[in-house]
Design a protein that fits this description.
By secondary structure, the protein is an alpha/beta fold. Helices cover 52% and strands 8% of the residues. The protein has 34 helices and twelve strands. Strands 1-8-2-5 form a four-stranded parallel β-sheet, with helices on both faces. A three-stranded antiparallel β-sheet has the order 4-3-9. Helix 23 runs antiparallel to helix 24. The model is unreliable at 164-226, 229-260 and 795-803 (pLDDT under 50).
């Protein structure tokens, strides 16, 4: 006997009904819709450390970016079928097209995504197929429902034309961008399983040239509106639909998946042919009671007599193949959501997980979780709110004729009672509970590439935790473990795995001994790990190989090489340091552009500082930094001539950064050479004011010129021979964000004030925009203090006519007294 169970992917009601049906049927073989070459991985389901949500990952070893995922949650019927098999010693096999074919097929014959359940929901008086399935199947688990669903699907398929004039499939030739995120370009699925019937999106090839329906992250308000409409019980208005569709989010609308005609395309026919062939093989092998678990849309094609195999063989003949490797990887609830672009996704994976795991008083327990979430965000929610929310949800369910309150009822109860109609508060509940960010886990001995195994070992050793929620970690680089964590995160970033993102921590620190990271693990990182495995078998060797490869490419600038060297030290890539230093020296010797050399100097200086903090030997870098500074000092005086305003301001920023770098390094020889170069620039008359004024300011701050000299240079810059624009540029360069200088140096303030008051009207109007930009960069407090200083500043004090003459005799007495006090010889 063979029984076909047409299920909804990721449906808790289907999962519960299937588990009960399998107990009644007692099969001796179970076939599950999934890649047939994943059979060896079924045994891992029984491991104690296997925790859904997880996914089967298939990828092409020579081109890891070509990959596919088959996700499973604890409430997925397929997962429950696998659990039944391993718990009862029943052989479990996958019966769909192997991953070797899925990853090789370039199928342009798939039709637009449609939902066969939409027609059934419409006939039942529902405007949303999701709500109809939830009310009829999910809320009332019943093993008899499978036969009824198969019969309904058969009736729908009778009127669905088969696409038979499509060309034969060709091998995939699509190229993939290795830096693009995995799983973001799923081909349009043929027959929808998003509302619960079938999923070609269990096959998610990740070639990068066919993006899925985009989700506009810069339109949060419209997306929130679409999410609200998806759970609303009110009918859609035309204006609602137009606003959401204009943002490219029409796939989130309740009826979106039901649009278009029902068509059985050729890809679906090939999949069903392979399933029948697998069934024939199992029956021929001696199986007596076979249970077939597949999407409900496929069920009519698998029930009854299988018929001759020849037509199926002809349909499958010539399918392209490629090498494929398969493994289990962790997955998240948010990636099971339809809002993520997953065609077989559900709108509320967190809610479905709750329904499946909490069988006693699920509504009350759910609303208690909601109260916990709101309380965690410091919102006032009491036990009375929970009681009233349960009462309202049950009342709404009774009014609507439902045996149990569903998501729409509990959401309306939360909105009304706990949130007081505040949609922002409700959004917290939707994000953290209705969707959720639960991250699964797989056993350590799961087949994987060596690089992934090394990463798992490092994570375990360093006591880090892979989490789907964002978590901030402060690292103290004076501690050995935190230094190793920093090395790990920097190596991963270098390999394109952005698990950690540097951020600003709550603990303020002006030193270099602290780092703050924002950690969040994404399932697609598993593909990127496989992609990065081409560089090496461990994180260190892979990062070293990649950074050296990047540095050896043609056209790499000195600045990029300096940044790469800084990254190498941050990641403790000692094997790459010598090669990067040699490449940097060679590039600096051939690069005659002073701006490139200036851009590289700050990075080298930071690298020297990091070496001190992290205990890295950076003596070789000192030679490179010295050589770089010599070339800068030789070329900078010639590079500052003939510049327009934009070029001068850009160069001024680089000079500021280089000056800070030289000062930070605190090397006497380097500082002397640098300040001597600035002095040569400050003494020239053919230099743009933005650079000349800044050179004077930096020399004054370094006490290489005194206040009198700087005042003389200011007077020369404001002399009659210069244009108003040149004068304003010099002042901008001289002040450059240092507003307090005018507050404390009243003489300087008076000179600038006198110059401004003496300007003719036309020159004042021409100069005003430049000065406005200069003074606009000051802090508001600095501007107020400057204004107060101008009010308080009177005319310059006149010299006293009758100055007291110096009495040498009295001076000698004072000097002898001071010498006696200090113990000096008289």
């Amino acid at each position: 006997m063979t029984r076909v169970f047409g299920i909804r992917h990721h449906g808790p009601g289907s999962a519960r009904s299937l588990a009960q049906a399998l107990e009644e049927f007692r099969p001796d073989t179970i076939l599950i819709e999934g890649p047939a070459d994943a059979d060896p991985l079924v045994g891992f389901v029984a491991a104690d450390t296997m925790s859904p949500p997880v996914a089967l990952l298939a990828y092409v070893p020579d081109s890891p970016a070509r990959a596919a995922f088959w996700p499973f949650a604890v409430f997925s019927p397929e997962w429950q079928a696998m659990r039944y098999g391993v718990d009862n010693g029943v052989p479990v096999r996958f019966c769909d097209l192997p991953a070797t074919n899925v990853l090789a097929i370039e199928d342009d014959t798939r039709v637009d995504r449609t939902d066969p359940l939409a027609a059934l929901a419409s006939a039942a008086g529902f405007d949303d197929a999701e709500r109809w399935w939830d009310a009829v199947v999910e809320s009332v688990p019943d093993t008899a429902a499978f036969d009824a669903i198969t019969e309904a699907m058969a009736a729908l398929r009778e009127d669905a034309p088969a696409s038979t004039n499509s060309p034969a499939p060709q091998a995939s030739t699509r190229s993939a961008d290795p830096d693009a995120p995995a799983g973001t370009d799923e081909p349009t699925p043929p027959i929808d399983c998003a509302a619960g019937t079938d999923s070609d999106d269990h096959e998610t090839p990740t070639g990068r040239d066919e993006p899925a329906t985009p989700i506009s992250s810069d339109q949060p308000a419209i997306r929130a509106e679409a999410d609200d409409l998806a759970t609303s019980t009110d009918p859609l208005t035309s204006s609602d639909r137009e606003s959401v569709e204009s943002a490219g989010l029409e796939h989130l609308l309740p009826e979106a998946v039901g649009a278009g005609p029902l068509v059985v395309d050729e890809h679906t026919l090939r999949r069903e042919a392979y399933m029948r062939q697998t069934m024939r093989q199992v029956l021929k092998g001696g199986a007596r009671r076979v249970a077939v678990v597949c999407g409900a849309w496929h069920a009519p094609a698998l029930v009854g007599p299988l018929g001759p195999a020849a037509p199926d063989m002809r349909l499958l003949k010539g399918l392209p193949k490629t090498k494929a490797a398969l493994t289990w990887v962790p997955w998240t609830h948010s990636r099971l959501a339809s809002g993520s672009g997953y065609g077989a996704g559900v709108t509320s994976p967190g809610w479905y997980h709750h329904l499946f795991t909490e069988t006693e008083r699920p509504v009350a327990r759910w609303l208690t979780k909601v109260a916990g979430v709101l309380r965690a965000h410091d919102l006032p929610v009491s036990s009375a709110h929970i009681i009233e929310s349960v009462r309202l949800a049950d009342t709404l369910a009774a009014l609507r004729g439902r045996p149990l309150a569903g998501l729409s009822e509990v959401t309306e109860a939360v909105r009304s009672v706990m949130c007081g109609g505040d949609e922002t508060m409700l959004r917290l509940v939707v994000d953290e509970l209705v969707v959720g960010e639960t991250l699964g886990a797989v056993p350590e001995n799961t087949p994987t590439v060596p690089l992934a195994a090394d990463l798992r070992a490092r994570i375990k050793t360093l006591r880090l935790k892979q989490e789907a929620l964002i978590r901030t970690v402060d690292l103290d680089l004076r501690k050995e473990r935190d230094v190793e964590r920093s090395h790990l995160l920097h190596r991963l970033r270098l390999l394109g795995i952005e698990w950690g993102t540097p951020t600003v921590g709550e603990v303020r620190s002006t030193g270099t001994f602290r780092e703050t990271w924002s950690l969040r693990w994404e399932p697609e990182f598993e593909v990127r790990i496989v992609e990065a495995a081409v560089w090496g078998t461990t994180l260190r060797t892979a990062a070293e190989a990649k950074i050296l490869d990047t540095a050896s490419r043609d056209g790499v600038s000195v600045t990029e090489l300096a940044d790469a060297l800084e990254t190498a030290l941050l990641a403790d890539l000692g094997g790459a340091t010598d090669g990067l230093i040699a490449r940097l020296e060679a590039a600096a010797a051939l690069d005659h552009d002073v701006t490139h050399l200036l851009g590289a100097l700050p990075g080298l200086t930071r690298t020297l500082r990091y070496g001190d903090v992290r205990g890295t030997d950076t003596k070789a870098l000192e030679h490179v930094a010295d050589g770089l500074l010599v070339r800068i000092c030789a070329g900078l005086p010639g590079a500052v001539t003939g510049l327009d305003t934009d070029a001068a301001e850009a160069l001024r920023s680089q000079i500021d950064a280089a000056h800070t770098a030289v000062s930070t390094r605190d090397d006497t020889r380097s500082t002397t050479e640098w300040l001597a170069t600035l002095h040569r620039i400050a003494d020239r008359d053919d230099v743009h004011g933005a650079i000349g004024g800044r050179a004077v300011r930096l020399l004054c701050d370094a006490e290489r010129i005194d206040d009198a000299d700087s005042a003389r240079r200011l007077s020369a810059a404001l002399s009659v021979g210069n244009t108003p624009a040149a004068k304003a540029a010099w002042i901008d360069g001289f002040l450059g964000g240092r507003g307090l200088l005018l507050v404390h140096d009243r003489d300087l303030l008076r000179r600038i004030d006198d110059w401004l008051r003496e300007l003719p009207e036309d020159q004042f109007v021409a100069t005003l925009p430049l000065l406005r930009r200069t003074f606009g960069s000051f802090e508001s407090g600095e501007r107020r203090a400057i204004g107060q200083a101008l009010r308080d500043t009177g005319p310059a004090p006149a010299a006293t006519a009758n100055a007291t003459a110096v009495d040498p005799a009295r001076g000698q007495l004072a000097l002898r007294a001071a010498a006696s006090i200090l113990g000096a010889a008289g």
